[in-house]
Write a structure and sequence with these properties.
About 45% of the residues lie in helices and about 15% in strands. The chain is of the alpha/beta class. The chain has one domain: Arginase, Chain A, CATH 3.40.800. Helix 7 links the parallel strand 4 and strand 5. The chain has an 8-stranded parallel sheet, with helices on both faces. It is built from 11 helices and 8 strands. It is globular. Bound molecules: zinc ion. The site of zinc ion has 7 residues, from loops. Zinc ion binds next to loops. Keywords: Hydrolase.
Length: about 325
Amino acid sequence: MIHVVHHPDYVTPAPARSTYRWNKNGLIRDLLLDKGDAVAWHRAETTPTAWLEAVHDEDYVAEVLRADVPKEKERRIGFPVTAAVASRAAIVPHGTWLAACLALEHGFAANTAGGSHHALANTGAGFCVFNDLAVAAARLIDERRVARVLVVDCDVHQGDGTAALLAGRSEIATYSIHAEKNFPVRKARSTVDVPLPDKVGDEVYLATLESTLVPLLDEFRPELILYQAGVDPFDGDRLGRLALTLDGLVQRERLVADLAIGRGLPLASTVGGGYGEDALAIAERHVAAIMTLGETFAAAGDAGRRVGALNAR
Ligand SMILES: [Zn+2]
C-alpha cells in the first residue's frame, strides 16, 4: 500500500497567459487512480497561515492569499496568481507536511504536488509560489516530530529557495544535485551542492549522487528525508540539460529509497520539475517515481515497515 496525498484543488484550470502545464497534476491523479488498491489516498488541507509565515514574509503570504501579487513578482513566478492558484498554493505545503507525517508512520508517502523549491521569503519564482519543502521541514522541527530533517533535491534546477529559506537552521540540512548551467543563474548555498556539467548520463549521475549523498546522511544523521523528485534531469526534458534515461530515473528512485531504508529513515516525496509538450508522458515519469519509491520500501518488507514503526509517535 502506497500512501499518497492529494487535493482536488491541486488540479487547477490554467490561468490566462500561462505557459505552465496545469493539467500535469490531474494526469498524475488519474494514473495513480489506475493503480487501484495499491494506493491509499489522503487529503491535504489548507496550510495554517502561521506555518507559511514561519518561512515566508508576512506581506508576501498576504499578497498570495488575497490573490493580489504585484506584477513583477508574478513575472518572476511565471504565471498570474489568480484566486484558484492562490488556493492551490495554500494547500500544497500542508500536503507535503502530511506526506511526511504519513512517512513517519508507514516508511514512505508521496505528495502528488509540491517540490516548489524556487520560492523565496518575499516572492515566488520559477513556477513556485510557496516553498512547501521549507514550510514542511520547518513545521516538522517546530512540532518536534523529528530532531533533524534532510531535504534531498534531485530536480535538474538548484533548490535555491529551499537553501535560502532554511539556511541557519541547524536541525535542517539541504542537498541539491543539479545542472550547473541551468536556472537559477545565481545559485544559493545548500548544505551540499552538487553542480553537474551538461549532458551527464545515468552512470555518472547515479555514482555522483551516491558518493555525495552518503557522507551527508552519515554526518548529519537526519530522522526524515523530504525528497524533491523532479523528473527534469530526463534527456528529453525541455528545460533540463542532463541526459538521464527513463530507466536512469527509476534507478535514481531505487537508490534514494535504498539509502533511506538502509538507515531506517522515513522518506516523503514531492513531485517537482518535468517539462515538455506531452503532459501525459511527464505525468507518467512522476508516477513511475512515486511507484518505484513506494515499491522499494514495500519490497524491503520488515525493514521498510520497521522504518515506519520506529518513528510512529
Ligand atoms: Zn526543475
